[in-house]
Amino acid sequence: MSLPPILENSFEEPSSPERPRKRRTGRAIFIILGSLVLIAALVAGGYVFNLANTFDSNSGKIEQAFPEESNRPKPAEPVNGTSPKNILLMGSDSRGATEVDAVNGTPTDQRADTLMLLHIPADRKNVYTVSLMRDLWVDIPGHGQSKINSALAYGGVPLMVQTVESLFDQRIDHVAMVDFEGFKGLTDALGGVEVNVPTAFTSTHGNFSFTPGPNVMNGDQALAFVRERYAFADGDYQRVRNQQAFLKALIGKTISSETLTNPVTINKMVQSISPFVSVDKSLDSGALAGLGLELRDVRQQDIAMFTLPTNGIGTSSDGQSIVLPNPEAIANISDAMASDTLGGYITSNNFQNGN
């Protein structure tokens, strides 16, 4: 297919005699991680004005995303002029009911059903994502011990940011929140996604049956797949593994030549996901495009997604079923992020393919 010059230039970069031209997949990869990652779909096709305008016009803006500066860790020190970046990705299953309150930074009855901390090292050669269990029992600043996802209910996005920053003593640079409904339109825009399903189950959302191995999912099936937790003996643990499996499949489909050379598909992706995404004010299409450019040499194998190790399931003093934190794992990850060596931590614990 012949592309207009502006799109053609977005997909290719001149090669040199000394080094073969590399596929520019980093922008697509950032899109996918976390689901909200999906927010950067426009970057996957290049920074084209109409796509940028679609994203900036249709996505929500979190006016107050961060806590008071006095309550925050210091920014990371730059390495060779570039600093590591941490992005908090939140997936909610609110179906739009309470999103406005959450993004305005006010208390709400909404919970964050999916929490991922995306860490991009200073050299921009990898992308690491740490999934946080929604029932992880942590200290919510000003509210005592509680499940981590309740921070959103107590104080909106700013308190959620403060809670995660306090947990790892690391500063969060950007925030993105997506409603799970956005998965449906994005999957259909791609013409379906083939996911390697880890274990068989029948969903309680829509009564879809999934078999072990490759399953081609449409939007409704994908939405049921990433939501499900009641069908599993270990509940949210398997749910997180399924979400990671879906994201990996989504990465593969998004960075395929079939997708990257099809401006119609890319436009559908941006249009389908933008209304379900809210980002902090500084994370506009220009910032996403810049980050995508920095990540242009990242490949799928340069991405690692794992779950924060815990000490299993327990019961709180008031009778809630909770996930017990693993202080040693939290401290080790905090140290690795602070020293920009999270890749070494992942390798030493054999988390390259999850845990």
Overview in brief:
This protein is α+β, with helices and mostly antiparallel strands and 355 residues long. It has helices spanning 5-11, 26-32, 41-44, 49-58, 99-103, 151-168, 181-189, 219-227, 236-254, 257-260, 263-273, 285-294, 327-338, 342-348; strands spanning 60-62, 85-92, 114-120, 127-132, 137-140, 144-147, 174-179, 193-197, 201-202, 209-210, 213-217, 277-280, 303-307, 310-315, 321-325.
Question: Would you kindly provide a written description of the structure presented here, covering whatever features stand out?
Answer:
This protein is α+β, with helices and mostly antiparallel strands. It contains 14 helices and 15 strands. The chain has helices spanning 5-11, 26-32, 41-44, 49-58, 99-103, 151-168, 181-189, 219-227, 236-254, 257-260, 263-273, 285-294, 327-338, 342-348, and strands at residues 60-62, 85-92, 114-120, 127-132, 137-140, 144-147, 174-179, 193-197, 201-202, 209-210, 213-217, 277-280, 303-307, 310-315, 321-325. A hairpin with a 5-residue loop joins strand 14 (310-315) and strand 15 (321-325). Helix 7 (181-189) packs antiparallel against helix 11 (263-273). Residues 1-17, 28-47 and 95-99 have low confidence and may be disordered.
